[in-house]
Specification:
- The complex is a heterodimer.
- Chain A is mostly helical.
- Chain A is 66% helix and 2% strand.
- Chain A has a two-stranded antiparallel sheet with strand order 1-2.
- Chain A is elongated and about 75 Å long.
- Classes of the chains: A mainly alpha, B mainly alpha.
- Chains A and B meet through helix 7, helix 8, helix 12, helix 14 and helix 15 of A and helix 1, helix 6, helix 7, helix 11 and helix 12 of B.
C-alpha cells in the first residue's frame, strides 16, 4: 500500500466498484436515470465536466441499485420482517379506503377514492347509543358521543400513518444534509451544527414537542392540528439523524474513493451527494424506520394529552384521552381498540426496522470474523 | 490523559451547551405569539399606566438580550418569581414536584435494570433458542406498547376491576408504605419500555463480547461458564448500557409526562402538562429549564463514569 505510484493510484479509481459485465450491459440505459436511488442532498449539479461524467458512469451507477436489490433479497427471506411489512400495508390500505377521499374546490369536487370501508362517518355523533359495548352494529362499540369506534379507528390510521411518515421524511430532509455537511467539512461548521444538536438533545423528545406545539399552533398556514404535530415532531426529530450521519461520514470521508474523487476535482457538493452520503446512510435508514414508531408513539402521546390536534379528532392517541374517565367507569372498549391499533403498527414498524438492519448489514460475518481475531 | 484532565475538558464542552439550553428555554416563551403582558393580566382592560408598571416589573421594557441576562441571573439563584396564573412561587412549586418525579423515575429505572439485565444475559447466552425468541418478542412488545395505553389497562384491571390499588394517590407522605404500594403500577408502566431497550442492547453487546478471544481463554483455563459470563463478559457488555443511561433519563422524563397524567402523580410531568394547557409560561419556562439542565448534567456524569469504567475513551 505504501509504495503506490501515482499512476497506479489513478488506475485504482477506475477499478473500485468497477464491474464490466454489469456496466457494459447497463451503461446505455442508466446514463440518465442513475440518480433515482442515490439520496440527493442538493440540486443536481449540471456543471460537471465531461471527464468527471465518464469516471462516474464507469465506477458508480450500478452500485447503489445492486446494493438495494441485494438488501431486498435478504429482507424478503426474513419472515418476521415480512410479516411486519404485511401488517403495515394492510393498515395503510384500511386507512386509505376507510372513507372516500375527495378534493373539492369552489366549483368541482373530484373523488380520488370512492370506497368506504368504515360503516359510519367518524365524526358523526349519535349514530348509536353512547358508550355502548361492542355489538354487531358497532363491533368496537361507541364512545361518549355515540360515535362508531370502528370507523374512528379505521380513519384514525390516516393521522397516525401520515404523521409518522411525513414527520420522519421532513426530519430526514433537515438532518441528512446537516449531518453530511458537518461531518464532511468539519471545523467551525461542524462545531456550530453539533453544538446545536447537543443543546436540543438536552430536551426529551416529548417535552420539546410539548413546548413547541403552542408556538406553532397559532400559525394560520398550518391550519392547526395535523401540520402542527408534524412540524413539532420534525423539529425535534432531525437531531438524531444529523448526529448519526455525521459519525458515519467522518469515517467515510477518509476512504480512498472520496480522496480520489476530490483529487479529480469533483465539486464537494457532488462528492457528498454521490460518494459520501450513499455510503454512510445505511444506519440512518434503519434509525429512520424505527423512528417512525417513536414518532407515532409521541404523536399519540400528544393526542392523549390533548395537545396539537383538535379535541375529538379521530386520532388514536386523542381517542384515548377520554379513556381514563371511561375506564374508571368500567368501559374498557373505548381504550382497548385504539391502543391495540397503535401497538400493532409500532410493533410492525419495529419488525421491519430490524429486518432492514439485518438486510443492510451484509458484512456481519466479516465483522464477526474480525471480532474473533481480537 | 488523566481522569482529572478529561473531566475538565468535558466541563469545558458542557458549559456552552448549558448556555444554549438556557437561551433556548428563554426563547420558547419569546417565540410564543401575543404580548406577554396580555398573558399576565389575562386580557383585561387596564390603563396604560398599569400596563407600563407591569412591563417595568417584569423587565419587559428592556431589550431582549437584557431580559435574557436578567432572567438568567434569576434562574441561577433559582428565583423564578410567581406564576401569574396561580399566584404561587414557581421555585417552591417545582421544589415540591421534583421529588415525586425523581422517586417515580428512580423506581422505574431500578425496575428496568432488574428486569433488563437478567433478560439480556439469558437472551445472549441462549441465542437462537426459544428463550431468546421469547425475549425478543417480549422486548419488541415492550417497546411498541404505548405507555399511556399500558397504564390505562393496568389501572383498569388492577385498580378498577380487582380493586387491589387506589385509582388516585393516597394522601400520605412520599416515603410511606401506602405510597410505595400505590407507586407499583406507575413504576411498571414507566419501566417497561426502558427494560425492553436495556434487554435488546445488552443482548447484542453480550453477543459481541462472547465472540472475543478472552472468553475462549477464560473457558480454556477451566473457569465455569457462570464465572465467564458474570465476571468477564457481563462487565464488558454493560459499557454500552452505561452509555445510553443519559438517553434513558430523557426517555424516562418523556414517559413520566404521560404516566403522571394517568395515575394523577403529583410530579413535574403533570405540572408541565397543566401549565401548557393553562398557558402558564413562567412555570413552563422554569420546568423545561430544570429538565434540560438536569439532563445535561446527567450526560456529563455518564461520560465521567464511562471514563472511569473504560480508560480507553479518555484518549
Amino acid at each position: 500500500m505504501s509504495d503506490r505510484h501515482p499512476t497506479t493510484q489513478r488506475g485504482r479509481i477506475r477499478i473500485v466498484g468497477f464491474d464490466d459485465a454489469v456496466a457494459d450491459q447497463q451503461a446505455g440505459d442508466r446514463e440518465n436515470d442513475d440518480d433515482d436511488d442515490t439520496i440527493a442532498t442538493g440540486p443536481i449539479d449540471s456543471s460537471t465536466t465531461p471527464g468527471e461524467t465518464t469516471t462516474e458512469t464507469e465506477s458508480e451507477p450500478d452500485r447503489p441499485r445492486r446494493r438495494l436489490e441485494d438488501a431486498w433479497r435478504r429482507f424478503r427471506r426474513n419472515r418476521t420482517a415480512m410479516a411486519g411489512l404485511g401488517v403495515i400495508v394492510v393498515m395503510a390500505v384500511l386507512a386509505v379506503f376507510a372513507r372516500p377521499i375527495e378534493v373539492s374546490t369552489a366549483e368541482v369536487t373530484i373523488t380520488l377514492q370512492p370506497f368506504s370501508l368504515a360503516p359510519y362517518d367518524p365524526s358523526a355523533m349519535f349514530v348509536g347509543p353512547a358508550n355502548a359495548p361492542p355489538s354487531r352494529a358497532h363491533p368496537f362499540g361507541t364512545d361518549w358521543a355515540g360515535r362508531d369506534q370502528l370507523s374512528r379507528v379505521l380513519v384514525g390510521g390516516r393521522y397516525t400513518l401520515g404523521i409518522g411518515l411525513v414527520a420522519v421524511a421532513l426530519a430526514l430532509c433537515v438532518g441528512v444534509p446537516l449531518g453530511a455537511i458537518a461531518g464532511y467539512f468539519g471545523g467551525w461548521i461542524d462545531e456550530a451544527i453539533m453544538r446545536l444538536v447537543d443543546v436540543l438533545y438536552a430536551f426529551p423528545f416529548l417535552v420539546l414537542a410539548i413546548a413547541i406545539v403552542p408556538i406553532l399552533e397559532p400559525i394560520p398556514v398550518l391550519g392547526g392540528g395535523f401540520w402542527t404535530v408534524v412540524l413539532a415532531l420534525a423539529v425535534t426529530g432531525w437531531i438524531g439523524y444529523a448526529r448519526l450521519l455525521r459519525g458515519e461520514v467522518l469515517s467515510v470521508r477518509e476512504r480512498e474513493y472520496v480522496t480520489a474523487a476530490r483529487a479529480l476535482g469533483v465539486p464537494d457538493r457532488t462528492v457528498i451527494r454521490r460518494h459520501v452520503v450513499p455510503n454512510a446512510v445505511a444506519p440512518v435508514v434503519v434509525q429512520a424506520t424505527l423512528n417512525v414508531g417513536t414518532v407515532v408513539l409521541t404523536a399519540a402521546a400528544l393526542g392523549f394529552l390533548g395537545l396539537g390536534l383538535e379535541p375529538g379528532s379521530a386520532e388514536w392517541g386523542a381517542m384515548l384521552s377520554q379513556g381514563r374517565s371511561s375506564l374508571v367507569q368500567g368501559r374498557w372498549h373505548i381504550t382497548v381498540f385504539p391502543g391495540l391499533a397503535i401497538f400493532l403498527f409500532v410493533l410492525a414498524i419495529n419488525l421491519v426496522g430490524d429486518g432492514i438492519n439485518d438486510a443492510l448489514d451484509p458484512h456481519r460475518d466479516v465483522s464477526d470474523e474480525r471480532r474473533r481475531l481480537r | 490523559m488523566t481522569l482529572g484532565r478529561y473531566v475538565w475538558t468535558r466541563l469545558l464542552v458542557t458549559a456552552p451547551v448549558l448556555f444554549g439550553v438556557t437561551a433556548l428555554t428563554f426563547s420558547f416563551v419569546h417565540l410564543l405569539p401575543g404580548d406577554a403582558v396580555d398573558a399576565i393580566i389575562g386580557f383585561q382592560d387596564v390603563s396604560p399606566a398599569v400596563e407600563a408598571s407591569i412591563r417595568a416589573e417584569y423587565h419587559l421594557d428592556q431589550p431582549v438580550w437584557k431580559q435574557y441576562l436578567l432572567w438568567l441571573g434569576d434562574a441561577a439563584t433559582l428565583e423564578f418569581g410567581e406564576s401569574p396564573i396561580t399566584g404561587r412561587d414557581v421555585a417552591a412549586t417545582i421544589g415540591r414536584r421534583l421529588p415525586a418525579t425523581l422517586t417515580l423515575g428512580g423506581a422505574a429505572w431500578l425496575l428496568a435494570l432488574a428486569v433488563g439485565i437478567p433478560a439480556g444475559i439469558v437472551a445472549a447466552v441462549r441465542a437462537g433458542e426459544p428463550a431468546d425468541e421469547l425475549g425478543r418478542i417480549a422486548a419488541l412488545a415492550g417497546i411498541a406498547t404505548p405507555n399511556f395505553w399500558l397504564g390505562l389497562i393496568l389501572l383498569f384491571v388492577f385498580s378498577v376491576r380487582l380493586g387491589w390499588f387506589r385509582v388516585i394517590p393516597p394522601d400520605a407522605p412520599l416515603a410511606s408504605l401506602a405510597m410505595a404500594k400505590f407507586m407499583l403500577l406507575p413504576t411498571i408502566t414507566l419501566g417497561t419500555a426502558s427494560a425492553a431497550l436495556i434487554t435488546r442492547l445488552l443482548r447484542s453487546s453480550m453477543r459481541q463480547e462472547l465472540e472475543a478471544a478472552y472468553v475462549r481463554t477464560a473457558r480454556a483455563k477451566g473457569l465455569s461458564e457462570r464465572t465467564v459470563i458474570l465476571k468477564h463478559v457481563l462487565r464488558n457488555a454493560l459499557l454500552p448500557v452505561v452509555t445510553v443511561a443519559g438517553l434513558q433519563l430523557a426517555f424516562l422524563v418523556d414517559g413520566a409526562v404521560v404516566v403522571e397524567q394517568i395515575f394523577s402523580w403529583p410530579g413535574m410531568g403533570r405540572l408541565l402538562v397543566r401549565s401548557i394547557l393553562r398557558r402558564d409560561y413562567t412555570v413552563i419556562q422554569a420546568a423545561v429549564l430544570v429538565i434540560g439542565v438536569a439532563i445535561v448534567i446527567a450526560n456529563l456524569l455518564v461520560d465521567i463514569v464511562y471514563a472511569i469504567l473504560d480508560p480507553r475513551i479518555r484518549y
